[in-house]
Structures
1.
Amino acid sequence: MTVLVTGAAGFIGYHVAERLLARGERVVRLDDTNPSYNPNLKQLRAGRLAAHSDFGIVRADIADPGVVVGCLERAGWFIWRLRRGALVPRASLRE
């Protein structure tokens, strides 16, 4: 089965994708690779996932409906994660 995971370079998405790959599922990561937090950590996680032959990536913005529909048509399941930056204004994180 193919599972679409958004935010697979983030903490939760990465661990979910890793677990799915360990189970033998095919994982497609839909991500715009924005620098919402430590880009080096995101690159490290993405590199670990990319080492799996059953891992693919679509670099695009989840706000693009054409891309999302195309990905969903190829995936049997999807895990939709909103990035932290979309949920909490960065200014409020410092308060």
2.
Amino acid sequence: MSEPVSTQTMEVRKDKWSETRLVEGRIDAVLAENEVLLKIDRFALTANNISYAGAGDMLGY
């Protein structure tokens, strides 16, 4: 059996984009057939992310 994996989720308040938080969590690292678990070293927020934040509900995202 595999050890649980620590996670961080960045949450952004939909009605006030300047309010964010990182939520710590843990997931079970046991994977089913054809599943993969990827580690992200870093990420970036771009203008495209902001566009989706503004129009996401209208577009059904």
3.
Amino acid sequence: MKEYWVVDPLAKTIEIFQNEKNKYILNSEFKETGIAKSILLENFEIDFLTII
């Protein structure tokens, strides 16, 4: 898996991890605001407030 997202509605966070050389690195983190964008999927983005 090249990328995965962790959405935590209780903590109100979204974390996006990217696989680099078989290790997952935190690429982006959002807390309560922002637009989360996929590194792999062009034009795929989610407004934080619409899912939390």
4.
Amino acid sequence: MGNLKDKLVKVCLCKGVSRHTIKECISEGAITVDDIAKNTGATTGGCKGRRCKSKIQELIEENK
């Protein structure tokens, strides 16, 4: 169930990037918010990361 929830929960609302996609990037070696942004487009939408940067950083810390 956790994996399905990860696919449904959007961390970056502006670009529609899911928690699953971000965790996948982390497992493939992304270690910074900028790495995630380059691979997914997260933080590059209308809010420029104001809503999602802290959530992405938390996911990086939790999934190192």
